[in-house]
Amino acid sequence: MVITSKKQRTKSSGYVSRRAATIAPSGIRKFFDLLSGMEGVISLGVGEPDYTTPWHIREAAIYSIEKGMTMYTSNSGMPELRRELSQFLKKLYNLDYDPNGELLITVGVSEALDLAMRAVLNPGDEVIMADPHYVAYDASVILAEGVPVLVPTYESNNFEITAADIEARITDKTKAILLGYPSNPTGAVLEIDKLEKIADIARRHGLLVISDEIYSRLVYGIQHTCFATLQKMQEQTIFLGGFSKAYAMTGWRVGFAAGNKEVIAAMTKIHQYTIMSAPTVAQVAAIEALKAGEDDIAEMVADYNRRRLYIVKGLNDIGLPCFEPRGAFYAFPSIKNTGMTSEEFSEKLLVEEKVAVVHGTAFGQSGEGYIRCCYATSLADIEEALLRMKRFVEKHRQS
Ligand SMILES: Cc1ncc(COP(=O)(O)O)c(C=O)c1O
After folding, report:
1. pLDDT at position 4, please?
2. Of 33-37, 72-76, 358-362, which gets the smallest average pLDDT?
3. Which ranges of 18-162 does DSSP label H, i.e. alpha helix?
């Protein structure tokens, strides 16, 4: 247990730990505080589906409440859910995970990420990750007293982290590589040949790979490769996945971690003491999603794809060059030709045109010069947002 002595306390009240004081509030949240109370805003900001959870999933959850399923479940998650998940991963990726010991049901990938870091890192251990990256990646490492090691990624390289760049940053403190593809915020994907090269490094250096594949089902015209399917990688990978994005279930708070028994047992111990078990009603909903959610995913993906094509073309047409995202539901256009920083651009766009986007630097310094636009919103809203952005860009474009 970490105890903060009086001496170590921070200057202000003295009660906040250095660990908590070190991490900054999420740049996304800070921005949305600005937005609250404003009327007529079109939001391309929050990264969540605009769909309501499919009815059959909600219905299964309602029935479970009617039947009185209101107790804690097993710490690892309902046996039926773990069995269903094990079969699902076998069918989808031909992976064998023992439902008793190799799967843990968590409160979203958020919890799984935190548990993974706390279960594997000793103070000072380094975790290599791409920049820009999902807001919780570096924070989860810092909270576990590890050190995030950032690898800048560039539009010219499709925002892909490269094996060579990873290898160049390996030290005797490196414990893990954290991958998050399809990527939030860029929409980049890593295809199998690139992943193979990263797997080769992980094998040679004995590194753990923590692979956040929450957007694995939201890919357009390509096949997602699950990192754990690569040669000898299942033992060396903590595979994180969830229900929030693919099944439009953000508010249910359910996800999973799959990995070798030793690491999953360590994660389960922390989960036991901090969470006990993921919400029972959400676990029932997750069972139904796994059993009968494929058609919903297909329908939503087809719809996201239409919006993706529309927004990427629209952004390019209004003079905000946008690389083609092939996964997740984000476009990440460059705003460099406006001469503004991404934070200035986002704030002014919100104030002057009432369009909410997220500044690229909310995801790390390599996000400077970019904004994140979530296109999981209606085509009509995207159309109107693009009109407003066109006006804004014309007004501010540097000649
Ligand atoms: C890359 C990534 N990982 C994890 C999460 C957290 O997801 P969950 O709702 O499962 O906690 C998000 C949410 O936006 C995300 O974008």
Report:
1. 40
2. 33-37
3. 18-22, 27-35, 55-66, 79-93, 108-120, 136-143
Pocket probe mutation, ligand 1, options 111, 134, 161, 179, max atoms within 8 Å of Cβ? 134
Ligand 1 geometric centre to CA of 241 (Å): 9
CB 325 within 8 A of CB 332: yes
Q: Is there a contact between 189 and 181 (Cβ–Cβ < 8 Å)? A: yes
Please choose, from the candidates 245, 235, 241, the residue with its C-alpha nearest in 3D space to the C-alpha of residue 206.
Answer: 235
- In this prediction the pTM is 0.94
Segment 385-389 mean pLDDT: 97
Report the DSSP pairing between strands 371-374 and 330-331. antiparallel
How many whole angstroms from its chain centre is CA 11? 34
Q: Which of 277, 262, 389, 286 is nearest to 331 (CA)?
A: 389
In terms of Cβ atoms closer than 10 Å to its own Cβ (0-12, 13-18, 19+), residue 387 is: middle
Asked whether the bond before 279 is cis by omega within 30 degrees of 0, the reply is: no
Q: Which residues of 208-229 are buried (b: 16+ CB within 10 A; e: fewer)?
A: bbbbbbbbbbbbbeeebbbbbb
Q: How many whole angstroms separate alpha carbon 200 and alpha carbon 206?
A: 10
Indicate whether residue 374 lines ligand 1 (CB < 6 A): no
